[in-house]
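Q: Here's a chain of 307 amino acids. Please give me its 3D structure as tokens.
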Amino acid sequence: FFLTIGSLIRLINLPLLYLGTLMVGASIAVINVLLPSLIQANQPKKIGFLTTLYVTSMGIATALASYLAVPITQASSWKGLIILLTLLCLATFLVWLPNHRYNHRLAPQTKQKSKAKVMHNKQVWAVIVFAGFQSLLFYTSMTWLPTMAIHAGLSSHEAGLLTSIFSLISIPFSMTIPSLTTSLSTRNRQLTLVSLAGVVGISMLFFPIGNFFYWLAIHLLIGTATSALFPYLMVNFSLKTSSPEKTAQLSGLSQTGGYILAAFGPTLFGYSFDLFHSWVPAVAALLLVDILMTVALFMVDRADKIL
């Protein structure tokens, strides 16, 4: 309901456009944090399947929205697009409303000693680092890879096509990774190899050849690393905690760090180019981030239970 109201008031005037956007962002953040806990509380035996369902739905909806936003705006106006999105939010609210009676009330976390213990848990910090750096890599790559490809000599059309591929590559991973994570052992997952694909892709950015297939390989490698690890992260909020309360706690801590780092990553990447007039320092920083994320991923994957 809060999401629907936030979307609707953006139509009124400029101040409410900013306020509504803030409300929409806050609502999405809360939903993302609570969904893993909701699944564990209501369907603990279907964690892999339900995580697959909602993460895949997110990817498909994002791709469709990106594809349809411009035609809808051109056919009506930006207000027409917001009205349509608001109606979708309202429909979702009405469909979900009957579930309200089945809500599980999470036990309040009131003990300060318990909170302090959580913050001194190295594995919790590993999840926070992993989540934060995964978000930073994804949003920075999504923002700046098209510009870097154009600077290397590709056309705007080619760069746009590569961006679409970068977005769509998440769908097959969303459909498979949660179920594989719940069914395979730690040894058989080989997730560090997935993360190392990002290391290879980022390293190729040091040699910006003006060839479409070279940049296709970069997008596929980096896209594989970021897109495969997001559903893995979401399913592990449930798998590596012992109760819905702890799932919500770990999800909240990790995604808070993720949103903060993701907010600063693209901006700092762009400032680095303005400062050094070269992509090399920013790419080197991105490579370091990917390596640290791989180390954090290794720690998370080896842990049986984190909370």
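Q: Can you summarize the key feature?
A: The mean pLDDT is 80.
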